[in-house]
Amino acid sequence: MLHETMEFQIIEENDIRLYKLKSHFEQCTKGYHLINRSPINETVWEEINALILSESGYEVHSKSDGGHVSGMDIHSSFGTISNKSAKYSKTKKGTSFDISSYRLTTVCSDKNCGEPTLFIEEINSRKNFEYYSILVRDECGETKDKETIKYDWLYIPSDCQVLDPSAYTWEPTMGKRGKNKDTQVGWHTNEINGCKMSINFSMSSQLWIHVDLSEELQQFIIASSTVNCNPKCNYIELYKKYNKNKNKS
Fold first, then answer.
1. Tens digits of per-residue pLDDT, 68-107?
2. Residue 38 maps to a domain
3. Which of 109, 140, 198, 213 is deepest in the core (most CB within 10 A)?
4. To 10 degrees, what angle do helices 2-32 and 42-55 make?
5. What residue numbers bound the domain in which 215 lies?
6. Number of folded domains that form the chain
């Protein structure tokens, strides 16, 4: 009986925390757009993500504060996290997106094309986090008096197959025109459940991951929020309101 009671308490506690995560995610995305029209980018998402976690009862031990060092961005009791932001593809709206990852010029470039075993080892050696925390947006459309953005928050284990470069077969990408015709310009992979990876030498050999939201990946959506991104006030107005309330108290 005691064991069953403890299990129920754990489930109940997890349900409460999940509710808090969803609630604080919605509050943060809508709060951000009270004063900002532009979508939430990766640097802002790290700050918001840390706030959501701390307000939901998780400890945030450290943040990268927008630093450009690859790897972990947030160390928390909810896990070690790499923050990413993306936009849903216009051609497959609401079902696929692309995220950028490591620059790999030390192991593959136009001067030294490298080998898959080497850059896969390099990618995985930098993966010092447990989860990708990805904010994906769908700019639903705009009218004269209304603009909406839908945000999805995905929390995907970093060892998920479609995010593992060693799960794919890598092949050289050859140039098709101009001075690069028939010259290797990067690397690309096969598809796994609609997902794939690529490296383009002309883009600092940056790794790009194309993610297709299969049913399996949709289970990692923690929360969603649809917001009106027309600002309700600006920074000056916010400052004046804050000082007015402060003086009253």
1. 566 899 999 999 999 999 999 987 666 899 999 999 999 9
2. yes
3. 213
4. 140
5. 2-230
6. 1
